[in-house]
Specification:
- The protein has about 725 residues and is α+β, with helices and mostly antiparallel strands.
- It folds into 3 domains: about 210 residues, Mog1/PsbP, alpha/beta/alpha sandwich (Protein Transport Mog1p, Chain A, 3-Layer(aba) Sandwich), CATH 3.40.1000.10; about 300 residues, DD-peptidase/beta-lactamase superfamily (Beta-lactamase, 3-Layer(aba) Sandwich), CATH 3.40.710.10; about 100 residues, Lipocalin (Beta Barrel).
- Helix content is about 30%, strand content about 25%.
- The strands form 6 sheets. It has an 8-stranded antiparallel β-sheet, sandwiched between helices.
- The longest helix has 22 residues.
- The chain starts with 6 loop residues before the first helix and ends with a strand.
């Protein structure tokens, strides 16, 4: 069953995604970020921090010990269920505490930690204006010896109201322990968040850590707001300024082609194409150029589900297994808890497992994707943390299709039929399709582009995008800006299409916008949507990424304003976020740092690729000889490594790529292995593979912590 394809793109996102993660809302739902600068946490063990325990003043356990009156106060303040705010020393600042986490107030600092897990976040304030000095004193204050080496130091643009932001990520220890420090300066004070714990635990509770760190609020700090501010009128000057920003950032990021649409007050006030359908080609991008929208497809699956609730096919709270009996998770107890709405909420604890799709998609059916879920172990307790899963959303779409006309064995065509009949057709999205062959056979479709080792974009084979087909409800739609603006207008009108047809009830449409689980302090995941706060404005949106396309759709319901951005480039989230922010800057006359954030993102990407190129070295033929041959992993199947004409390559079936050796970083491998590190390149820069030699023999791996997959040699004899 295990036919392979395109290992490279799957691990590209894991390797490079973390360098785009300084903007949490922009990236959390799109790329497989291993770590976010604002969301890595840990606490030392009792041996490392003997002060913790009887000397620490325990205040409360977040979660089940909360009283009814406290829950009411949280609801009134907009906090998520099971979450509350606690103050730092002297009431100088406050932070949210995630459900099932504990918190203590020690001398000079606040600790937020997971009971019985070696993971904590330390927060403190110091009278220092030098962020690095403040970080050093913070480690000393919490009693952790700062003997670890700095791996990466960054200064992203500071968020309001802070004046300066400094992030230091330390080298992983040989035991794969992760440490990070975030310093925010405001006036004469610097507020420091320290994160310390095993990489695996940090990865599992990534979003909860981000909630804590991003939720730090300083008592009395002046924060700007857009509450009560109405957007200005659309006029030629705004069009000119937005067009200027788009061209400048396309040039800076090297984006081949982009299509943009803006909806305001029920009308499409602007739509336009920029650049080319293929780098170096002659055909221009237009508003009718087809591109993939990736995970923005999830919002359409949510609309289909809402329509099914309208028509009485099931309720939001109907058990998923009642609608699709073949739906199963790893325990019967967990399966029984999942209702139809939970398939879209990213709140069940089921983690992201994209490699099982990316490396097997040619042999996978819709039914296989549903069945995969029974093999996945939850990362966190049900309902407590944001965990993004493409397979869960796919199961939601397929279960909804089964509630219409689908039967087991025909889930994909049933989903395609239901989407066309219930969503695309009534809205008038005539160029939107889930049929891959139909999309690429059309005369006006864009070519996907992947990134090279030089940090530039090159065309890639469009067939690589077929990985989306088996998980269609989570990311397989092809569309145009013309169609997407019709979709935006339907959302903003409460479910009524531009032609006047009611597609879905306003009640159930708005149900999909309701927050279900926190992503950060400023953003939550709804039902297939990201719900975020823009200085007091509620923004509903979603990003999407495939092998070579990026999408961004967002709207502000209260102001009847929305934007859609489609680009034929992999991982162009920083570009699309800057365009979205620039539109809001112009219409609300507010500084949202669109240019500053985009500039920083490009500088970080450029530096990362420069660092990769500087780490390149030569292949040691004798050293790699034991790794030449065929390898297998239970989840991902076979991988073949070859040495041909002086080049080291790997082959995963229909795809092969060159491997270039890299000088190892600190923390590569573990204490029990010697490691050689390789970067996959040609036709597209990819991820990191590691050749490991242990006392038990040799193995190949990629990923780290929870995302690590190990290949063992195949004995064909």
């Amino acid at each position: 069953m295990r036919s392979k394809a395109s290992i490279k793109a799957s691990i590209t996102s894991k390797r490079l995604g973390r360098y785009r993660c300084w903007s949490p809302v922009a990236t959390m739902a799109v790329l497989s970020c291993v770590l976010l600068w604002s969301c890595s946490t840990a606490r030392p063990s009792s041996e490392e921090d003997p002060k913790r325990g009887s000397e620490a003043k325990s205040e409360a356990q977040a979660g089940d010990t909360t009283t009814r009156s406290e829950a009411s106060k949280r609801a009134e303040s907009g906090e998520s269920p099971g979450m509350r705010r606690v103050e730092g020393p002297g009431g100088e600042f406050s932070v949210p505490v995630p459900q099932n986490w504990a918190t203590t107030l020690d001398e000079g600092y606040r600790v937020v930690s997971v009971p019985n897990v070696d993971l904590a976040v330390y927060l403190t304030a110091l009278g220092e204006t030098d962020p690095e000095a403040a970080i050093s004193k913070a480690w000393e204050r919490v009693g952790i010896d700062q003997t670890f080496d700095v791996g990466n130091k960054a200064s992203p643009p500071a968020e309001d109201p802070f004046e300066r932001l400094t992030v230091i990520t330390y080298e992983l220890s040989s035991k794969q322990r992760f440490r990070q420090a975030v310093a925010r300066r405001l006036g004469e004070r610097t507020y420091v968040t320290l994160i310390d714990g095993p990489l695996v635990d940090v990865q599992k509770r990534n979003s909860q850590i981000q909630v804590i760190d991003s939720g730090l609020r300083v008592e009395g700090a002046d924060v700007s707001t857009l509450e009560g501010v109405s957007p200005g009128a659309w006029d030629p000057s705004i069009e000119e300024e937005l067009s200027k920003h788009i061209r400048e950032k396309m040039n800076a990021f090297g984006i081949p082609g982009v299509a943009i649409g803006v909806v305001k007050d029920g009308q499409v006030v602007w739509k336009r194409g920029f650049g080319k359908r293929q780098e170096g080609g002659a055909e221009s991008v237009t508003t009718e150029t087809r591109m993939m929208i990736g995970s923005t497809t999830k919002t359409m699956t949510a609309m289909l589900m809402a329509q099914a609730v309208d028509s009485g096919r099931f309720e939001w709270k109907t058990p998923a297994a009642d609608v699709l009996p073949q739906f199963k998770l790893n325990t019967s107890e967990l399966t029984g808890r999942v209702q139809m709405r939970h398939l879209l909420c990213a709140c069940t604890g089921i983690p992201r497992r994209d490699l099982e799709i990316l490396m097997n998609y040619r042999d996978l059916s819709a039914e296989d994707v549903v069945e995969q879920l029974a093999t996945f172990e939850p990362f966190t307790e049900f309902g407590t943390a944001f965990q993004y899963s493409n397979q869960m959303v796919a199961a939601g779409g397929y279960a909804t299709a089964a509630a219409y006309t689908g039967t087991w064995g025909e889930l994909l065509p049933a989903y395609e039929s239901a989407m066309k009949k219930e969503v695309f057709g009534p809205i008038g999205m005539k160029s939107t399709t889930l049929r891959f062959d139909r999309a690429v056979s059309a005369s006006n479709h864009a070519t996907p582009h992947g990134m090279t080792l030089e940090g530039t974009y090159d065309p890639i084979d469009v067939s690589l995008e077929r990985f989306t087909v088996p998980l269609a409800p989570a990311g397989a739609v092809w569309s145009t800006v013309g169609d997407m603006t019709r979709y935006l207008r339907t959302q903003l009108s409460g479910g009524v299409a531009p032609g006047g047809t009611r597609v879905v009830s306003e009640k159930n449409l708005e149900k999909t916008w309701e927050p279900q689980v926190k992503i950060s302090d400023q953003a939550s995941y709804g039902l297939g949507w990201i719900v975020s706060d823009l200085r007091g404005k509620r923004v509903i949106g979603h990003n999407g990424n495939t092998m070579g396309f990026t999408s961004n759709l967002a709207f502000i319901p209260s102001d009847d304003l929305g934007i859609v951005i489609l680009a034929n480039a992999w991982g162009a989230n920083s570009f699309s976020e800057s365009v979205r922010a620039r539109l809001f800057e112009l219409l609300y006359d507010a500084d949202l740092k669109a240019v500053e954030n985009a500039t920083y993102a490009r500088e970080q990407t450029t530096q990362e690729f420069k660092s990769l190129r500087e780490r390149l070295t030569s292949v040691d033929e004798a050293a790699v000889k034991p790794f030449i041959g065929t390898w297998t992993n239970d989840s991902l199947g076979r991988l073949e490594v070859r040495w041909e004409d002086g080049d080291l390559t790997y082959d995963v079936g229909e795809f092969s790529a060159e491997l270039l050796p890299l000088k190892p970083e600190d923390g590569e491998g573990d204490e029990s292995s010697a490691t050689m590190t390789f970067l996959t390149v040609k036709p597209q820069v990819g991820g990191i593979l590691r050749f490991e030699t242990t006392d038990d023999g040799v193995r190949i791996s990629f990923g780290r912590g929870t995302t690590k997959y190990t290949f063992e040699p195949v004995d064909d004899g």
